[in-house]
Amino acid sequence: MRPIIGIVPSHSPDTRSIAVREHYVNAIVGAGGVPIVVPLTPDDATYETLLPMIDGFILTGGNDIDSQRYGEQYIPDVERIRATYPTIQHGISRLTPTREEVECLVLSYAYRFDVPVLGICRGMQMMNVHFGGTLYTDLADQFGGGAGAGAAAAAAAGAGSRAASADAAPGPRAGVCHWQEGSWDTPGHVVSVVHPSKLGDILEVESVPTNSMHHQGVRDVAPLLRPTAYGPDGLVEALEVYDRSFMVGVQWHPEFFADKQPMGHLFSALVRMAAATSSRRVDGCATLTVADRSEAAPREEQIPAAISIVREGRTGCAGAGHDGNGSGSSNLTEGPASSEGATEGAA
Questions:
Q1: CB 76 within 8 A of CB 90
Q2: 3-class DSSP state of 247
């Protein structure tokens, strides 16, 4: 059977709607997977049944992440943001707390049971925040040269940059336009890929042209993550969780180039790793403690037919012959895990 890939959608609370750009769907189908949309609901019982049925996940682009999750008190200057990034979507700084809670749940589940995840743009940033990293709340304001230099200058700066080492970002900073004004299916600047890394093994290149549609970026990298690509200005452009088989995040939007290589390899790798997930499924129910990253989980832990989510003292176990109140038996070792409107596509 083809592996099922769960897509976490963007959320527009104003219109009570969720959305997934068809580029994500086409990329998954083209790589041999079956895409489904993960619902956004506060009902944990939904995910206790649904998550164990999914073989891999994509965290998509979208709105800014609530800065309080990484210890900042960021109040966006909407007018200045619009002036700096003329084509930025309306509502980019509108928060989507329901989506964030679902993403944290997905990442906790995926880390615990070593289920593959591809984080794209905002999705990569959410990976970093979830595992304890921080963000630049606005690149033009905090990073220096984060916007406005133009795609041509960025591409020129990146064309001559050497591949980044695993120890340090390239420098010094050059003018890079991280919110490109042109079509999103054309490159905006070049990124240097770190070798050795999972991303390097997948793309098999030293550098690659990418598109760029974000005004925030990774600042402090979370302890469990390592940078695997940099922009010509030294900004982190890709991350991966070092002790999991495939938890990879990229700051660009590869779904716009999924029919071309090497970008298509990202989706092929996700689907290939997801295909191996089903072989680790067993009957039973295991407890998932959300956002508890105090201990590293075994990499080859079996995947239960259902999970019991522990979040702020609430428990419950659904599906797989269990009665929904956590009383079902399990042949799995229970333990701690690792660890809303706008148009999708921004960081």
A1: no
A2: strand
Beta strands in the chain (DSSP E): 4-8, 10-12, 17-19, 34-37, 56-59, 117-120, 135-136, 189-193, 207-210, 217-218, 225-230, 236-241, 247-250, 281-289, 303-310
Side chain identity at 170, as an amino acid letter? P
> In this structure, are strands 217-218 and 225-230 parallel, antiparallel, or unpaired?
unpaired
Q: What angle do CA 261, 263, 269 make, to 5 degrees?
A: 105
Average pLDDT over residues 193-200: 97
Per-residue pLDDT, averaged over 45-68, amounts to: 96
pLDDT (tens digit per residue) in 57-99: 999 999 999 999 999 988 777 777 777 777 776 667 789 999 9
Alpha-carbon distance of 335 to 241, in angstroms, equals: 20
Residue 345 has pLDDT above 70, yes or no: no
| Rounded average pLDDT over 258-285 | 93
- Entry field: residues in the chain: 347
How many CB atoms are closer than 10 A to CB 91?
17
**Cα within 13 Å of Cα(101), Cβ side:** 14
Task: Give me the helices (H) in the chain, please.
Answer: 22-30, 44-50, 78-84, 97-113, 122-130, 139-142, 151-159, 198-203, 263-275
- Helices and strands of the chain, counted as H and E runs: 9, 15
C-alpha–C-alpha distance, residues 236 and 221, integer Å = 9
**Digit-coded pLDDT (tens) for 255-269:** 999 999 899 999 999
* Residue with more model confidence, 93 or 250: 250
DSSP character at residue 300: T
**Cα(208)–Cα(197) distance, rounded to whole angstroms?**
15
Chain position carrying tokens 């970093």: 128
Q: How far apart are CA 193 and CA 79, in angstroms?
A: 35
Mean pLDDT of all residues in the chain?
A: 81
